[in-house]
Amino acid sequence: MSAPRSDAIVFFGATGDLAYKQIFPALYGLVHDEGLDVPIIGVAKAGWALDQLKERARDSLAHHGLTDEATVARLCDLLRYVDGDYKDKQTFADLRAALGTAQRPLHYLAIPPSLFETVAQGLSEAGCAENARLVIEKPFGHDRASAQALNAMLARTFPEQNIFRIDHYLGKEPVQNIMYTRFANPMFEPIWNRTHVRSIQITMAEQFGVDDRGRFYDETGAIRDVVQNHMLQVLATLIMDPPTGEEHEAVRDRKADLLKAIRPLDPRHVVRGQYAGYTGVAGVRPGSTVETYVALKLYVDTWRWAGVPIYIRAGKELPVTAAEVVVEFHRPPRETFGELVPSSSGHMRFRLSPDMTVALGVRAKLSGERMVGHDVELILTERPASFMPPYQRLLGDAMRGLGELFGREDIVDAQWRVVDPILDNVTPLYFYEKGSWGPSEAEQLIDRDGPWRNPIVSGEPS
Asked: How far apart are CA 368 and CA 165, in angstroms?
């Protein structure tokens, strides 16, 4: 039996960047594609009136090329606005009044984590939390202990099934395609294990720097910003066991099993880097040792994956902006044709951005009488990234009470457990030039399992 749909949306931080960049476009998509027709209430302390929020929404939508006037007008008609301090009880009394007859609101906290407890308490005291759902942005905690404390605090007001921890990567079509490709095609699952897989690489490269996010990033760093959440979720999707049954929790159960089996990271298997000029960014502390790049090696202690090295790297100011996964296969036990074939020959590649690609690396014979070949890549599918925006999908799922694409308490705890041993300057910091592939020490980390496969944005095989 499906859960009842939320009958109102409340988003705190309505005048902020996240609302401008993601929430307004997601709401537009829900109105346009799904006929969303519930009150949408923005809450912020900006001294604004409703007309200013509507103007902000229109500006956001125009900026994103969302210009169907009927949809824009309908969205603006649904907007309401409550201006007030989150520490003021009157703000939540005004919110309760704005909700009118709505009994199952969805509250979206697009605000700093330091305000989560204040808002949760305000919602509870004003009668806005009963039967409500709560959407929380990352970072969910700053380490394992703070994440556990945050979970305990939220649990006093909201049951676990009503808490939706957003990781927008889970809403991306190419990430969902990994799972679909694996389990919809019988030829892959028999070789998706330690017997046939030599190693796994996951790369998330960004050609840009910290830009105007200096203060936030300097309190976060690459490990907290993308590894603890995005990259570990991609890994779990890639190598988890098949979900069983038809319950909505089946996928998250298998992800939880996988993440709990990852060994906590060994500092000896981590390389942190910082691009030249980072400390000159506004908001960054002088002499900061926060990493803008990280490469790491980890292992999963299950029968399926025991002994398979898994390499993850993520960084800013790299040569391209792209994310992809490469699963490398073992060579046959004997080279039938007596060739000297690279041990890294043979792979499967999933491109996650900027396009969606599934490709298979194989060896093919060169023309001529000799039985010699070369490595080629077969593009199984390649599509531009013109998909439903992840925030639209996630917001729609949260309204329906579908938690599959959100972080569950035990999953988030397992992710923090993996990275906790390497947080906060436990390992040395190396420097690298903008436009490079990070510090040379990352090549030493991958060593004989390498080389790193660098994504090529042009669509050519990497």
From this structure: 57
The amino acid at residue 233 is Q
What tokens does 54 get? 């509507």
Spatial CB neighbours of 359, under 8 Å, sequence gap ≥ 6: 348, 349, 351, 377, 378, 379, 380, 382, 461
Degrees, nearest 5: CA angle 248-253-254 = 115
CA atoms of 6 and 399, how far apart (whole Å): 5
Task: Give the contacts of 135 (CB within 8 A, at least 6 positions apart).
Answer: 106, 107, 108, 109, 164, 166, 394, 395, 398
Q: Which tens digit of pLDDT belongs to each residue from 222-241?
A: 999 999 999 999 999 999 99
> Of 64, 168, 196, 230, which one is the catalytic site residue?
230
Q: What is the pLDDT of residue 335?
A: 87
Please give the pLDDT value at position 387: 66
- Mutual angle of helices 89-99 and 116-125, in 10-degree steps: 60
User: Long-range contacts for 274-281 (Cβ within 8 Å, ≥24 apart)?
Assistant: 274/429, 274/430, 274/431, 274/432, 275/209, 275/315, 275/316, 275/317, 275/431, 275/432, 275/433, 275/434, 276/431, 276/432, 276/433, 276/434, 277/209, 277/434, 278/209, 278/210, 281/209, 281/210, 281/211, 281/214
**Numbers of helices and strands, H then E, in the chain:** 15, 15
Query: Is 230 an active-site residue?
Result: yes
Q: What is the mean pLDDT of each run of 10 residues along the chain (462 residues)?
A: 86 94 96 96 96 97 95 97 96 96 95 89 94 90 94 94 92 91 93 97 97 88 95 97 84 96 98 97 95 98 98 98 97 88 90 93 89 90 76 95 93 97 96 97 95 81 42
DSSP state of 450: -
204 exposed, middle or buried (CB, 10 Å; 0-12, 13-18, 19+)? buried
